[in-house]
Amino acid sequence: MKKMTFLMTLISVALSTLGQLKPVSNLTWSQTYVYPNNYFKLTWHSPSMPHDTLVGYNVYRDSILFRFQTDTILNHEFIGMSNCPDDQFLWNNGNSQFYIHVNAVYNSNHIESGYIDSAYTYGYATGISEVIKDEINIYPIPSNGILKIDLQNYNKIEILNNDGSKVLEIKNATELNLRNLVKGIYYVKVSTANEVIIKKIILE
Q1: Residue 31 is inside which H or E element, if any?
Q2: Which stretch, 56-70, 127-141, 158-172, has highest mean pLDDT?
Q3: CB neighbours of 194 closer than 8 A, spacing ≥ 6?
Q4: H or E stretch including 14?
Q5: Which of 68, 118, 173, 183 has its CA at 20 to 30 Å from residue 61's CA atom?
Q6: Dist CA 134 CA 156 (whole Å)
Q7: Does residue 110 sit in the same domain as residue 139?
Q8: Are 198 and 101 contained in the same domain?
C-alpha cells in the first residue's frame, strides 16, 4: 500500500510539473520587404490554463535567446506600433536563414516550457523584389501528402525540409503530391514575378 501511495504521489508531482510547463500555441510569422525596410510580425497565444505563474516569454533565433518579453507579439510594422527594430531581429549576425520559436516562462525562477511550433525565415531581405510572407491557401494541413494550392501565375514551387534545404521543385500544378516524402514539417516556397510566399505544412 505504501508503494502504491508513493507511486501515486510521484505521478501527481509529474503531472503537476508538466502542467506548469505548458507551451505557447498558434505561433505565426509574416515578413514583408518594402524598400528600404523589412517589416515583420511574430505572434502567439498564451498557454491555456497554466498551473503556475506565467511571467513572460523567451524568443529564440535558432537555439540563441534573442529577448525576454511579456507581450505576445514581436513586430516591426509599416503602419502601427512596433516593439523591435527590423535589423536587430532579422540580421542575426549576418546569418540569412534561421528558425524562430517562443518558450513560455514561469514563476520567479524563470522555468521555461518547451515549444510545439517554430517559424522559418530567410532573414534580412535586401532586394526590392524580395517579399517574404505567409499569405497563401494550401490545404489540408496536416496532410497525408496530397495538398491543394489556391494560387495562379506563379513561377515555381519549392518544398523545403525543416533545415531549409530544397527537397522538391514543382511547376504548373494546383495539387501537390508529397506522398514520397518522410512524415514531418516542411515549408512550401512559392515564387511569383513579384514576391516569395512561404507556408509551413505538416505531413502525417
Answers
A1: strand 25-34
A2: 56-70
A3: 129, 131
A4: helix 2-20
A5: 183
A6: 16
A7: no
A8: no
Contact between 92 and 98 under an 8 Å Cβ cutoff? The reply is yes
pLDDT of residue 134 exceeding 70: no
Does the predicted model carry a pTM greater than 0.85? no
In terms of domains, do 13 and 106 share one? yes
Q: What's the grid cell of residue 80? A: 502601427
First to last CA, the chain: 43
* Mean pLDDT (whole number) for 6-31: 64
> CB atoms < 10 A from the CB of 145, how many?
13
In this structure, are residues 156 and 191 in contact, taking their beta carbons and an 8 Å threshold?
yes
For position 33, what pLDDT does the model report?
Answer: 72
pLDDT higher at 175 or 57: 57
Same-domain pairing of 113 and 141: no
Residue of 86, 88, 98 whose CA lies nearest to 122: 98
- Strand pairing report for 132-133 and 196-203: parallel
Q: Mean pLDDT across the stretch 150-157?
A: 77
Q: What DSSP designation does 42 have?
A: E
Which domain does 180 fall in, by range?
135-203
Output the domain CATH number for residue 176.
2.60.40.3080
- Average pLDDT, stretch 88-110? 87
Q: What average pLDDT is seen over the chain?
A: 80
Q: Report the candidate in 109, 17, 100, 18 with the shortest Cα–Cα distance to residue 55.
A: 109
CA atoms within 13 A on the CB side of 97: 6
Number of C-beta neighbours around residue 77 at 10 A? 15
* Residue 93 and residue 155 in one domain: no
